[in-house]
Design a protein that fits this description.
This protein is an alpha+beta fold. Helix content is 23%, strand content 53%. It has helices at 2-39, 43-48, and strands at 53-61, 70-81, 86-95, 98-109, 114-121, 128-135, 140-148, 155-166, 169-178, 181-192. The chain has a 10-stranded antiparallel β-barrel. A hairpin with a 4-residue loop joins strand 2 (70-81) and strand 3.
Length: 194
């Protein structure tokens, strides 16, 4: 009887260990599959790749929504980085007589199922981060996020629309919300040069 009890206990321990091992292997396989899907560029990345190239930019900026915009121009170069997972834009232009240099990273997060865009430039030391969706009917990305208010150091809500007009033209509009009021701060028309 003691041998039977000992054998039964060993059997249950072995069965439990095998079950745990099998479950760990299953979890590991599921994790590897999820990671593979997360890291593999797909159709959304191919869509973003249409923006690769060189562009001229005609820019309108509103510092005060009740006044006419300041107009300027610039150029941008968009290239694919890290195996087509992200798209980096490098911008050069002027604003109020000063040279402006900026850089953005755009991509699509396979896990979140969202597009994203970051922006940094030589007019600040912070970063703007936006997430968004794409409307196939209007060829428009709509992003929302925040940027830093240099006066208070607090985040301000930002909304941005980016329309792929055709293969060689894009239109971007940016809006900020301050004191509960949303107003347009920027509009850019891009034309492909290469």
């Amino acid at each position: 009887m003691k041998k039977f009890m000992a054998f039964s206990v060993l059997f249950f321990i072995a069965a439990f260990c095998f079950s745990s091992y099998a479950q760990d292997e299953k979890n590991k396989d599921e994790m590897m599959k999820a990671w593979q899907e997360y890291m593999t560029p797909g159709p959304m990345h191919q869509m973003l790749a249409k923006g690769i190239g060189n562009w001229t930019a005609n820019i309108k900026m509103w510092e005060d929504p009740s006044k006419p915009p300041t107009e300027s121009s610039g150029t941008s170069e968009v290239k694919s980085i890290l195996g087509g997972r992200y798209f980096e834009g490098t911008y050069v232009g002027t604003f109020n007589g000063m040279e402006m240099n900026g850089r953005d990273i755009t991509g699509y997060d396979n896990a979140k199922k969202k597009f994203f865009n970051t922006w940094i430039d030589n007019f600040g030391t912070g970063i703007m981060y936006l997430e968004g969706t794409y409307d196939e009917g209007t060829n428009t990305f709509t992003y929302a996020g925040t940027e830093v208010d240099p006066m208070s150091g607090k985040d301000l809500p930002v909304r941005e629309t980016f329309k792929q007009v055709d293969a060689d033209h894009q239109h971007m509009e940016m809006f900020m919300t301050e004191n509960g009021q949303e107003f347009k701060t920027m509009e850019i028309d891009y034309t492909r040069t290469k």
